[in-house]
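Please go through the sequence line and token line underneath and see whether the fold suits the sequence. See right below:
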Amino acid sequence: MSVSFSGWEVTYDVSPRSVELGESQEPKDKGVYTMYHGTNIASARLIIASGFKQSSGGMLGKGVYVSRNQKKAQRYPLQCLPANRVVLEVRVRVGRVKRIDKDNHPMQYTWNAGGYDTAWVPPKCGMQAVPSGMEEDCVFDPKRVEVKAIALAPSTTVQTELQQLLAKSPKRPTQGSGDGGVCSLCKRKTLQGHTHTKQQCWGCGQNICVLMTKHVCPASA
């Protein structure tokens, strides 16, 4: 008995895009999440042009401070007037995550030395260092944080300027992400040093990738 091949369709549980995660949901190791970073106009220009820089210190030590709560990001910089504040939407590869949920936590400042890439403070955990009670993250390696959009700007003029800068800025590889690019066939991300397996469909001869979510063979459809 002959069997006609007409293709396939699959659904992946993990999206290659960054994920919107609720404040109280704990970020999973190696996850990619949408977060926000509050800064001033001048610093926003520098970040878009050259990437993030590690802070000299803070509640969780050195790193880039971000939050999944945009309202949290809108409060920063604390000593900055609202007319000079900008909120950047960022894509964060959290790597290995350490939960810090109490004051004087034994790893509050040493989590990176313990092998973690990101420290996560859950919302309403009672830490006096976080009087707002809003979720917060600190990413040790700035290269894990990439600007994706301008979430908030004090004026349309500033919004347009920063969007234009972002559009012109070079796309920098994210260290530790394993990104090698995007497969031209399945449109999913590839790992550095590894390419997706590609072959010709034995029915129609079309080039296909084994990770494509769907392929309909016109020769047998």
